[in-house]
Amino acid sequence: MRDRYRAGLGLLILTASAGCAGPQSVFSAGGADALQINRLFTVMLVGAVLLWLSLNGLFLYVTRRRPGRMSRKLAEGVIIGGGIVLPLVVLTALLSWGLSIMPEQRAPGDGLRVRITGEEFWWRVDYYPPGSEEPVVSANELRLPAGPRTEIELLAGRVIHSFWVPGLGGKTDMIPGRTTRMSLEPVTPGIYRGQCAEFCGASHALMAMNAVVLEEAAFARWLEAEAAPARAAEGEGQAIFFREGCGACHAIRGTPAAGVVGPDLTHLGSRTTLAAGILPMERAAMVSWIANAEAIKPGVRMPAYGHLSKAELEALAAWLEALE
Amino acid sequence: MRTVRDTDAPAPEGPFPPTEAMLAEPVPPEVAEAQADRLRRVWATPKGWRYWSAVNNTEVGVWYALTALAFMLCAGVLALLMRVQLAVPDNDFLSADRFNQFFTMHGSAMMFLFAVPMFEAISIILLPSLLGARDLPFPRLSAYGYWCFLIGGVFVLGSILFDAAPRSGWFMYPPLATQDEGLGSDIWLLGLSFIEVASIAAAVELIVGVLKCRPPGMRVNLMPLYAWYVLVVGGMILFAFPPLIAGDLLFEMERGFDWPFFDPERGGDPLLWQHLFWIFGHPEVYIIFLPSIALAAMIVPTAARTPIVGYSWIVLSAVGTGFISFGLWVHHMFTTGLPALSLGFFSAASEAVVIPTGIQLFAFVATLMVGRVKMILPMLWIAGGLAVFTAGGLTGVMVAIAPFDWQVHDTYFIVAHLHYTLFGGMVFPVIAGVYYFYPVIAKKTLSERLGRWSFWLLFTGFNVTFLPMHLTGLKGMPRRVFTYPGHVGWDWLNLVSTVGAFVMAAGFAVFVWDLLRPKREKLTERNPWGAGTLEWTHDLEDESWGVRSIPYIDTRYPVWQQQQLVDRMDAGRFYLPDAEAGRRETLVTSVIDGRPLQLLRIGGPTWKTIWAAIFTGGAFIFPTFAWYGPAIVSAVLAVAMVVWWLWTGSAEIPENEMADVGLGLRLPIYVSGSGAVGWWAVWITMLGDSTAFASLVFGVFFYWTAGTDYPPAGAAHADGPLALVTMLGDSTAFASLVFGVFFYWTAGTDYPPAGAAHADGPLALAALALGAASWALTLAAREANRRHRTGLARLCLSAAPLLTLATGAALIASPHVAGLEPTEHVYPASMWVLVVWTVAHLIAGLIFQLYGLAGLIFGRITPRYDAPLWNSALFWHFLGLTVLVTVAMIAGAPRVLG
């Protein structure tokens, strides 16, 4: 009997956690900040459920059970007890604990600094290793080392956005004309999905990105590779890229393409997603994106290249995909 | 009795309060019948097409409520369409652009076209009957407000049919909203500003109604709780809407004329809008919530069949909530990177509001514990509302903790939280109120069976829709997304929410059907719930006169606590049982203790208010399409209509000094100065107006301190104290200014930019001197007239307008000759906007002066009957200060502070 009870409870927890998990869920936490907020939430949730049940239980009791008349004096005591004493005690405790975690959550980083700029509807991601003033420029994917705390600087292009990776921690807005900051301390390697959280126009819904947390050593290797110029193959894809003027907007280090309007494509093929977290990094997706980006992401700045033949699109996509 | 301060009106004569013997004296039936006939004739609602010229609160209030309901249903349909789009991942039922228009309009309409107007509508309907008054003090103002609301609402909501609706969210954050192409943002700004003006008009009327139109003897501590809440909420509207109107002005100047208030390239700052918007936006939440608590405060004692427990606690809490609500706005901005100190302060302030809210809820529980509860249908809705609201309140406690808000801000968790508070704190109590008060309005009761069906459908549907959204948000779904991918695990939750939304819609459909279905039932009992307050003395045979006679009140629950009250009211034993002069009349009493002061004559049916509303609409709507010529013509015509309506319908010289109001009491008919309702209305309006001006001044200091190079550390130093300053500033406009000036004396920043031209000093000082002279002449005219020196008064008021014009010209010249170009940088733009504001008010001051002059010349104003001069002087006190502050800001501060 006891075992069956246990098994049932286990199943329940399993179902519940499966129901709560997800790539963008605060419950799939892999960062110190997110874990700390989850503890806060758990305590608040239990408290809130208990308070809700007692308050509404009391209301149900006095309206349905119709207890005898209480004296007015005693009733005023109910007002003072429930309306003043109870909230004072509960809220003082909650505020002291809840606000005390704020400095930790926003503590300065240990060395690595990442500058993220919100654009319509994608992200510039620039890495500043300790001591370096020249950034390693990337886009639409954030990679972080597990262990140390990374300083995150936030900027915005034309409109306000908000940077948020729920599995790692809270969000901070990106505001034109200002630089805001936060920091993140990932602990578990893995992929955590993030998304713009401040309404930023037509395709606000389609502005996401993966945050990939790597072991420290793996991160160092990756950053070194990311800093290197592209190993661009010669061929038809490259020719189409330059013929169509793609380099006016996109940069590929190590080639003449040096545009800064759109995302950097130097190591495009090594990213986990395409078009700021909304498409898989696959040939077919790349082809349809280039052919008509507007159809996939309304309001995007990238023009449609529908005039290219299917073969040309395939060649271009293959070339870009090979930029690893 | 003491005479009225400041005025030359004669004192009331005769006994007060009435004795039991006086009240017991019978009225001969034929006299009573003749009185009733006269009253009926005077208060008759016009028939046929002329019906729409009615201004009586019982007509206007019902139109208002039904219009707000219609707008709410439209906004609800938008929500359903959005739920269809979100039912499954990657759906293409709605395009991104259309979805964005829909969610913008859903929020905007629910807030501006439903929640606030619905409070005003219900209050316009109920307040006179709660106070035993015949009508509100300015019935034509209510009518004007209604027509403005209707025109503005149709304009804003109608834009959705032309695919031109605003699409940047109901919060309209710049730069997205300022740079948005198309008319959407202009429709939002101008259309809703127009409605805000109407809302403020209604708030002024309701505040004056509560303060001055109570029945004789009803001291403030005897007022029905609903009236207290009207007072608090009216005051909040007065201080909360003006910052938004000031923000709208800056916003529209940027959109229309490229003044760079929110453009960081030229020194502007998008965050200023967020501050101004939420200084409005957070009180707005309580503006919506408190009236519903007020409805509960009327229903609960009736259900418990006992007077409310903790009356004083509730009143204090309502006032406290009102004040605290102005200190919470930053919790909408926890993620904007403000410094931890500010966040901590606003977290604590946000939690503090739990205490007054808790007191109010526990007062209801305590009342139910004291009484013998009868579970009437409205009480079921209240109970449902409580269950829903407490859940929303508890999630509110969670999100007020800044670090938790960093996770859930702008996610579906917040969508769930806000709908729990708004349904529990507004929709359920309002429906409870409709079921409860319906017999007062329609003399029938709504169906018990349909009411229960509607409740359970709505309650179930609501929870099925919104409870899962907490989880959806925690699983990472942001708000305001038109679609979402299938692989993130939000699909089944969204599907459940969509199903729930349709169940909810069914609940609303049942309610609306019950409300609007033709009712063949016989009339209800007069007091079907056995309530104790005055509105239940209404006449079952519908009469437009409000009450047959205005009772003397000395208890909180007169129907329960005063012997023979209803019989004597019906018999015309109390005050004002007659309408001998053939005019619509009601009593004005003193603010604190309800002594009768005046017999107020109020306006009857008229078309002038509709024309005034149409032209005011033109003045706001034409600029949307950049048709400035027609807009100016409309504005001039609107002003002309208002002047015509005041000229023909207010402060009329009566045929007698005094009138008999019954029970041996004689009251003056004409009162001017601080005893007059008109003076109070000007005073209250100017408080609101000063708040808008203070917001503009706040904007200047905001730029001053936020600097132009935005180092995050520097910004952190600037924003924290700034927030504190604004809190003070919101209630005390000028104190904040002085405080702010000294506070920022030492703040070293580069606003104004180095080498920038400053407004011309001598010209600004000339403007100040001219303005002061004009102000002095306006006052002198009033005093000369009082002393029967009419010629001198006319002379003063002939010279004053010229000085006013010269003031305006000098004010414009001051920045103009110095070469301040508003499109170059935010510094000249913010100097110019203060000038524009002040010049607009000088024009209003000019109209006041000319109105006074005309009154003196055409004999509408005499040494004894001089109310317009008092009101004009009061306006000029505020205007004088505005000119002073503007001159100090444009010419003084930049030189002193650098």
Describe the structure.
The complex is a heterodimer of chains A (324) and B (898). Chain A is 40% helix and 18% strand. Chain A is built from nine helices and twelve strands. Chain A has helices spanning 2-20, 32-65, 72-100, 102-105, 216-227, 236-243, 283-291, 293-296, 310-321; strands at 113-119, 122-128, 136-139, 141-145, 150-156, 161-163, 172-174, 180-184, 190-195, 208-214, 273-274, 279-280. In chain A, the strands form four sheets. Chain A has a five-stranded mixed sheet with strand order 3-2-1-5-8. Chain A has a three-stranded mixed sheet with strand order 4-10-9. A two-stranded antiparallel sheet of chain A has the order 6-7. Chain A is elongated and about 90 Å long. In chain A, 43% of the residues are buried. Chain B has 27 helices and four strands. Chain B has helices spanning 20-24, 29-43, 57-86, 96-130, 139-158, 184-212, 225-257, 270-304, 311-324, 340-352, 354-370, 377-399, 402-408, 412-442, 448-474, 491-516, 558-561, 565-570, 608-621, 628-649, 677-706, 712-731, 733-743, 761-786, 790-817, 826-857, 867-897; strands at residues 585-589, 596-601, 658-662, 665-668. In chain B, strands 1-2 form a two-stranded antiparallel ribbon. A two-stranded antiparallel ribbon of chain B has the order 3-4. In chain B, helix 14 (412-442) packs antiparallel against helix 15, helix 19 packs antiparallel against helix 20 (628-649) and helix 21 (677-706) packs antiparallel against helix 26. The termini of chain B are far apart. The chains are: A alpha+beta (324), B mainly alpha (898). Chains A and B meet through helix 2, helix 3, helix 4 and strand 8 of A and helix 4, helix 8, helix 10, helix 11 and helix 12 of B.
- Dominant shape of chain A: elongated
Under CATH, the homologous superfamily of one domain in chain A reads Cupredoxins -  blue copper proteins
Question: Quaternary status of these chains?
Answer: heterodimer
Q: Provide the CATH top-level class of one domain in chain A.
A: Mainly Beta
What amount of the residues of chain B lies in strands? under 5%
